[in-house]
Amino acid sequence: MLQYLKMDLIAACMAVTTLFSLPTPVPATAPIATVAPMVNPPALVPVAGNSVAKKLPVAARIHASVAPVLTKALHPLRLAGTGMASWYGSMWNGKKTASGETFNETLLTACHRTLPFGTRVKVTAVNTGKSVIVKINDRGTMTPSRIIDLSSGAAKQLGIINAGVAKVKLEVLDKVENPATTHQMPL
């Protein structure tokens, strides 16, 4: 899969190079034309799978009109959905999360595959209607059939701690604009 992603990125960069190639040189007496400003996409972009945000190569710095399309095409976000949730707790207590925070099982946090760190998500247990607002601070879930892993504190508030897994509905309340500083955001 990584090989295909690399090939897609190379093909996109080649297309952009073709679209924005430099004109042939003109005599020194002709006035110099101004070029549209280049825009750098965000340094960190959420990626699918079990990896943290990765830096885009310099070649991906392209014209403003193309950047959002390319970024969305390569890195789609699943902003909300319904599916199975599970929880994790004491075994991970005190260990570092993917965002750099220290995991505390009593806090209302969760891990998600693609949402940016610091994103607040309303999680509702479908069978009970109970809801909790969590902050995404880790990457996962490691089980393909699940859409989110909750801290044990969040699972207790939802009433799913004994069941272990439950069907939930996710609603994104806000997304963090600067993923590099999300670990400093309060819940």
UniProtKB/TrEMBL annotation:
<protein>
    <recommendedName>
        <fullName>Probable endolytic peptidoglycan transglycosylase RlpA</fullName>
        <ecNumber>4.2.2.-</ecNumber>
    </recommendedName>
</protein>
<keyword id="KW-0961">Cell wall biogenesis/degradation</keyword>
<feature type="signal peptide">
    <location>
        <begin position="1"/>
        <end position="28"/>
    </location>
</feature>
<keyword id="KW-0449">Lipoprotein</keyword>
<keyword id="KW-0456">Lyase</keyword>
<dbReference type="InterPro" id="IPR009009">
    <property type="entry name" value="RlpA-like_DPBB"/>
</dbReference>
<feature type="domain" description="RlpA-like protein double-psi beta-barrel">
    <location>
        <begin position="82"/>
        <end position="169"/>
    </location>
</feature>
<dbReference type="GO" id="GO:0071555">
    <property type="term" value="P:cell wall organization"/>
</dbReference>
<comment type="function">
    <text>Lytic transglycosylase with a strong preference for naked glycan strands that lack stem peptides.</text>
</comment>
<dbReference type="GO" id="GO:0000270">
    <property type="term" value="P:peptidoglycan metabolic process"/>
</dbReference>
<dbReference type="InterPro" id="IPR034718">
    <property type="entry name" value="RlpA"/>
</dbReference>
<dbReference type="InterPro" id="IPR036908">
    <property type="entry name" value="RlpA-like_sf"/>
</dbReference>
<comment type="similarity">
    <text>Belongs to the RlpA family.</text>
</comment>
<dbReference type="GO" id="GO:0008932">
    <property type="term" value="F:lytic endotransglycosylase activity"/>
</dbReference>
<keyword id="KW-0732">Signal</keyword>
<dbReference type="Pfam" id="PF03330">
    <property type="entry name" value="DPBB_1"/>
</dbReference>
<dbReference type="InterPro" id="IPR012997">
    <property type="entry name" value="RplA"/>
</dbReference>
